[in-house]
Amino acid sequence: MKSKRRDRSIEEEQREERSELLSIVLVLSIFSTGLGHGLVNEASGGFNETCKDAVGDVTCYGAIGDGETDDSEAFLKAWKALCEVEAASDIPMLVVPMEKEFLLKPVTFEGPCKSDSVQVQVLGTILAPNTTEGWTNCYANTWLGFWNVSNLIVNGSGEINGSGSIWWKNFSIQALRFYNCSNLQHSGLTHLDSPRNHISIIFCDNATLYHLNISAPESSPNTDGVDISSSTNVSIHDSYIGTGDDCIAVNDKTTGINITRIVCGPGHGISVGSLGANGAYATVEEVYVNNCSFNGTLNGARIKTWQGGSGYARNIIFEQVTLVDVQNPIIIDQFYCNGKQDCQNETSSVQVSNVTYIGIEGTCVGLDAITFNCDEIMCTNITMKHINITSSDPEKSVVASCKNAEGNSECTIPEVPCLTIDECDNQK
Length: 428
Ligand SMILES: *[C@@H]1O[C@H](CO)[C@@H](O)[C@H](O)[C@H]1NC(C)=O
Ligand SMILES: *[C@@H]1O[C@H](CO)[C@@H](O)[C@H](O)[C@H]1NC(C)=O
Ligand SMILES: *[C@@H]1O[C@H](CO)[C@@H](O)[C@H](O)[C@H]1NC(C)=O
Ligand SMILES: *[C@@H]1O[C@H](CO)[C@@H](O)[C@H](O)[C@H]1NC(C)=O
Ligand SMILES: *[C@@H]1O[C@H](CO)[C@@H](O)[C@H](O)[C@H]1NC(C)=O
Ligand SMILES: *[C@@H]1O[C@H](CO)[C@@H](O)[C@H](O)[C@H]1NC(C)=O
Ligand SMILES: *[C@@H]1O[C@H](CO)[C@@H](O)[C@H](O)[C@H]1NC(C)=O
Ligand SMILES: *[C@@H]1O[C@H](CO)[C@@H](O)[C@H](O)[C@H]1NC(C)=O
Ligand SMILES: *[C@@H]1O[C@H](CO)[C@@H](O)[C@H](O)[C@H]1NC(C)=O
Ligand SMILES: *[C@@H]1O[C@H](CO)[C@@H](O)[C@H](O)[C@H]1NC(C)=O
Ligand SMILES: *[C@@H]1O[C@H](CO)[C@@H](O)[C@H](O)[C@H]1NC(C)=O
Ligand SMILES: *[C@@H]1O[C@H](CO)[C@@H](O)[C@H](O)[C@H]1NC(C)=O
Prior knowledge:
about 425 residues; mainly beta; Pectate Lyase C-like; 29-stranded parallel sheet; 2 helices; about 10% helix; disordered N terminus
């Protein structure tokens, strides 16, 4: 049931991209034959005659791609060559060819690179070791890490398979990490079965992720789709994410996050937080989630903060959200305790303010359509407009509960008790 389900429109767009891609590779190769750093001739096959001076293909550096040989050293060699190319008139590119499966141990791709921008095109499969011994020397708990690379492009129609199932009983490792990057573009790939979160974006500015297909079983623990922290101006759009935890988590020190046209489910929804664990000062602002759908998820639009933290989560908008059988469609939880029962109540917490929900419709499988569970510090300036959440079971009704929240609501079903109710003008 995992992996093969895709949003039809995404699949179509990816198929289009694939054919587009072939022509681009061909054009680039013709263009580059005169340059010292020849790019590959074709996406797969045909690279032998260009290997002598190519940056082009990982197989030129000894990668085998039979799914069994450890290709880590070959990938590192190929990365080093790519990263050493002086700025050329086009972007130096490394290709992971299609119809091959490259087994990689944990590897760290380090920048900065000499060229202003570099591209890694993944057409085949990158596979993680399926034994725990294969994961030794794991730098920063990461399997594939791109560090300190600016203007990095990682795209293609390939697959990254984290072989995560061996880890799901144990505490574990994230699959792909972009750390300290600017102007990252990551698109087209399928990400499967990460041991922990599939993609993390840390200390990045102006990152764009799109046309991704991220999938792990609903029962797999901590397999977040995309985690963002300490980053600014991150956009994630037109992707399918279905995992065992948050589809997207927007964490501490982030601002300017756009999340658009994400199909999420199964999973725990799109979350701001959790914020303020262990008394931390945390800040999140300018988060815009729009045109997203949640299908069979535990949560939909969620904000979660721990007791005892400080800082703020503010200026957050959830707009045009469709819900299908969601357990907790809209929730702010200031008593988040990660499923445990032993968290103490404290006198401080991360302050939640200026949160807007507009155009949220669909069904809830539980009773609690809307839950604002805030502490004495109050969640302020909550705005709700044109919300209609009904029970998945036509025989049942749903409720909104509200503690220590203030703001306004308009045309909102179910009615939220502690907000000021404005007249419902459905024309607006
Ligand atoms: C693990 O991978 C090896 C190849 O690297 C394969 O021969 C073996 O069957 C795999 N084992 C499992 C349990 O998937
Ligand atoms: C990334 O850059 C920082 C700052 O220059 C440096 O301290 C760190 O070692 C680099 N990380 C890697 C993995 O190259
Ligand atoms: C990868 O990104 C580059 C730069 O944006 C783009 O030209 C190319 O079409 C992309 N390739 C794929 C397969 O998406
Ligand atoms: C991912 O790799 C594992 C082997 O490690 C394999 O059993 C599994 O089928 C792969 N998943 C997909 C969707 O190819
Ligand atoms: C999980 O971790 C324990 C202790 O570290 C280890 O003994 C066990 O082999 C691990 N399980 C798997 C499936 O790797
Ligand atoms: C953001 O990154 C994109 C590439 O994804 C680039 O085209 C654009 O110029 C960058 N914007 C800024 C402000 O640097
Ligand atoms: C987010 O989207 C809004 C409206 O579409 C746009 O104005 C803004 O620049 C976008 N921000 C980022 C970080 O992409
Ligand atoms: C929701 O997910 C279920 C189970 O995967 C699927 O059968 C159904 O078509 C999906 N509904 C929508 C509206 O996407
Ligand atoms: C409230 O949030 C919205 C949306 O992010 C923003 O445009 C507005 O400026 C914020 N208001 C204040 C007073 O910060
Ligand atoms: C903390 O306060 C919340 C809300 O008042 C309450 O539901 C919860 O039981 C309290 N937890 C503890 C450990 O006192
Ligand atoms: C309250 O929310 C409204 C609607 O998003 C916004 O326009 C206004 O700036 C917010 N005010 C404050 C004080 O955050
Ligand atoms: C709310 O949604 C239900 C179920 O789709 C529909 O029957 C009802 O008419 C809607 N109410 C409003 C006010 O739009």
